[in-house]
Amino acid sequence: MARRSFILGTGSYLPERVLTNKELALMVETSDEWIQERTGIRQRHIAADGEVTSDIATAAARRALAAAGIDASQIDLIVLATTTPDRTFPATATAVQAKLGITGGAAFDVQAVCSGFLFALATADSMLKQGLFKRALVIGAETFTRIIDWSDRGTCVLFGDGGGAVVIEVREGEFADDEGIITHHIRTDGSKSDLLYVDGGVSSTGTIGHVRMEGNRVFKHAVANISSAIETVLAETGLTSADIDWFVPHQANKRILDGVAKKLNIPEEKVVITVDQHANTSAASIPLALDHAVRTGRAKPGDLILSEAMGGGFSWGASLFRL
User: Fold this and answer.
1) Is residue 163 within a helix (H) or strand (E), and if so which, with residue range?
2) Phi-psi category of residue 160: left, alpha or beta, with phi > 0 → left and psi -120 to 50 → alpha
3) Among candidates 99, 121, 5, 105, which has minimal Cα distance to 54?
4) Catalytic, out of 114, 185, 225, 292
5) Omega cis (within 30) before 85
6) 21 an active-site residue?
7) Which residues are paired to 316 by β-bridges?
8) pLDDT one-digit tens code per residue, 158-207
9) 280 in active site
10) Contact 79, 91 (CB under 8 A)
11) Which of 75, 132, 139, 309 could form a Cys-Cys staple with 165, CB 3.0–4.6 A?
12) Half-sphere exposure of 52 (CA within 13 A, CB side)
């Protein structure tokens, strides 16, 4: 008997406060037109004072659980992708575990920046298939605006806060090759870390630090690395871009999304784009976009979904799954 993981439900959460491009233009030398032309972003959400990453993650998780028809007590694994934890330790996933009233199983964080959700999904999927757990919450959540230098117009226009989650369950039986969560391809290249990083840390400076990025160089690597990861998962499965129902990419920058879709011949109407509404929410952006596609009736049970991401590290990857 084989084991296969299946997605049971999706959920997301965005903080109430919205910061538009026009408001941002009052804070730093930029404009709504400049931001939209280069990124496709119109606005971003900002966490409220006292609202921490675990709050955002828990809200998204509750919605995913409701969508799945699963009680929190039935979850025995939480894998939370975040770059902005509540505290240095314990893991923010344990705070989510406590807020959901879960006292069994395991909860831990994964840190791969914007690729974090795919790394977390691959980790949870592997652990479920090994028989270690039965049902997992996989979450991406960030309060990313708290590591932004609001005087740096090259980065402050790009990011926002939010969270997204999926509930996955392992089943035993005989399955077709393209059922459930099908495959992942995740990679890193630490030699490029100086192109996208935070200039602080517990061990190095004792400070939180701020995001620093060489945007043009990151863009070139992003299109190449993401395209390569997607080509790998398609080749591994024998599928083509024509078989994909929905392309749900990391919402970093519309120009990157357009570049990858064009290179892989994915039609524009199959691309789920939400970056205009919440900017780059790092590890949260894929589950946010996926939940949006589900709740707006675009993505339906049985649809084949392709996701990809690239973030600091460099880290990048792609996942293929059927709802």
Assistant:
1) strand 162-173
2) beta
3) 99
4) 114
5) no
6) no
7) 187, 310
8) 999 999 999 999 999 999 999 999 999 999 999 999 999 999 999 999 99
9) yes
10) no
11) 139
12) 10
DSSP-assigned letter for residue 48: P
Residue 92 per-residue DSSP state:
H
Give the helix ranges, DSSP H, for the chain.
21-24, 32-39, 53-68, 92-99, 116-129, 153-156, 215-237, 254-263, 275-278, 285-295
| Distance from C-alpha of 224 to C-alpha of 40, rounded to nearest angstrom | 20
Which is catalytic among the residues 45, 185, 210, 250? 250
Question: Tens of pLDDT along 264-320?
Answer: 889 999 999 999 999 999 999 999 999 999 999 999 999 999 999 999 999 999 999
What is the value of pTM for the model shown?
0.97
The residue type of 42 is R
Cis omega (within 30 of 0) for bond into 6: no
Rg (CA), the chain: 18
Name the pairing type of β-strands 304-311 and 315-322: antiparallel
- Structure tokens of 25? 């233009």
CA distance 40 to 44: 12
Q: For the segment 256-266, what is each residue's pLDDT rounded down to a tens digit?
A: 888 888 888 89
DSSP assignment letter at 121: H
**Neighbouring residues of 249: CB distance < 8 A, sequence distance ≥ 6:** 226, 256, 257, 260, 271, 272, 286, 289, 307, 308, 309
Total H helices, total E strands in the chain: 10, 13
Assigned token pair, 101: 């009233």
Question: In 3D, which of 53, 126, 66 has the Cα closest to residue 96?
Answer: 53
Would you call 114 a catalytic residue per the annotation?
yes
